Amino acid sequence: MSTYKDEKRITTHVLQEMKMRGEKISMLTAYDYSMAKIFDAAKIDVLLVGDSASNVMHGHETTLPITLDEMISHASSVIRAVARALVVVDLPFGSYQGNSKEALVSSIRIMKEAEAHAVKLEGGAEVVESVKRILTAGIPVMGHLGLTPQSIYKFGTYEVRAKEEVEAEKLLSDAQLLEEAGCFAIVLEKIPALLAKRVSENIKIPVIGIGAGPFVDGQVLVSHDMLGINKDFSPKFLRRYLNLFDEIKVAVEQYVSDVKSKDFPNEKEQY
Ligand code: KIV
Questions:
Q1: Which of 78, 100, 136, 229 fits as disulfide partner to 224, beta carbons 3.0 to 4.6 Å?
Q2: Counting atoms of ligand 1 from 1, which one is nearest the CA of 29?
Q3: pLDDT per residue over 18-53, tens digit each?
Q4: What domains sit in the chain, N to C, each tagged with a CATH number?
Q5: DSSP letter, residue 170
Q6: Distance 227 CA to ligand 1 centre (A)
């Protein structure tokens, strides 16, 4: 495992430099050791231990049920695999909202127990106090605006956010508040591309988009969606690079058939 003395390690400062020289930042979600090892070998810049683990790893309908203990468990598996990427961990629902002291305690647990590099939380003005308090412990914080899945029951749908001027202006001002509070980067989820461009041009910290168009400083996707493990989710913004659901299914069907037909194991596959 490399350390922070190691030049090839991606840090929050490296991301800032990437924005300044116009180099796009690549980010994917990861939840376990084996996948994280592959993504790190492929030179992904940032791995997000997203609370989307609630959906794709635990089978919940929303991101709300996943616990802090579960997030820490995923995060420590990812951290053990990674030599290069910056690992950011989502603060799960209920571990920071409305209570900056709890936000700090939850973040310290993530950094201490999982040995993560940074935390991410959802929201704008309403979480600024928490961002500032987490930063007092020297913990880097990533913001998340636009479609914030932990507020799904407030929004009512997973539709594109901030299409209307009032919400767009609030998002822009929230991004500025998060920057002033000390966030090192912001994720913008499912908002119009031109609004994301405005945000990215108006703040100095990197803006990483998911369904937020090309005019931002980097892109993030949920790995299970881009690899086609989860094939029931096909929003317009998603580019699928593999169809692993079908490929794994074919392989497992072949294995079942080989076992049933007594083709497996053959003479070479035994002692
Ligand atoms: O939890 C997650 O996967 C996320 C991404 C959608 C950015 O927050």
A1: 229
A2: 3
A3: 999 999 999 999 999 999 999 999 999 999 999 999
A4: 12-240 (3.20.20.60), 246-271 (no CATH)
A5: H
A6: 15
